[in-house]
Amino acid sequence: MTDDENRVAGLLLAAGGGRRLGGRPKALLPHRGRLLVEHAAEVLRAGGCASVHVVLGARAEEVRARAELPDCALVDNPDWEHGMGTSLRAGLDALAGAGARAALVLLVDQPGIGPEAVARVRRAYRSPRSLASAAYDGVRGHPVLFGAGHWAGIAATATGDRGARAYLGEHADAVELVECGDVAEAYDIDTEADLAHLE
């Protein structure tokens, strides 16, 4: 792994309050004998991210108390109720001060995405101008990789629950799609019915 590749930081967005799950924060849902936030952080680490930043919001103090997140930098997003865009901005702000060259962004509520998909997208890093995204049958999904040269533009357009969608749409020609449909499933844990995906 080159020095630059070592500077691809994992950024886990785990601040949501689980409104459609009766107000249960997704970070605290159980999966495979541990909390979903612990599982997702380990996926980023196992996928080759040298450092992992975790953005917390809903019941952040409880997540800090219950979750075992060794060697992770925990970032509080007091504005989490205003959508995922606020968490993305908080995370990128934290990474800007940590010397990272790129952020590899994973959502806490997608446990069907494992280390293989993370590693594939991470390997798409070339420079701070890199933009890459996992694809599922050619359709853009998560995880996504943002070189540091794009962070200011992403932060300026990340509003509500759209995250970086608008920015990626405007720069679609620059986004390297990395097919991951053979190693991952990109479902979300959004509703009570989705809880069946958890183990």
Automatic annotation (TrEMBL):
Segments forming domain MobA-like NTP transferase: 10-172
CDD domains the UniProt entry points to: GT_2_like_f
Name of the protein this chain belongs to: Nucleotidyltransferase family protein
Pfam family, one: NTP_transf_3
Source superkingdom: Bacteria
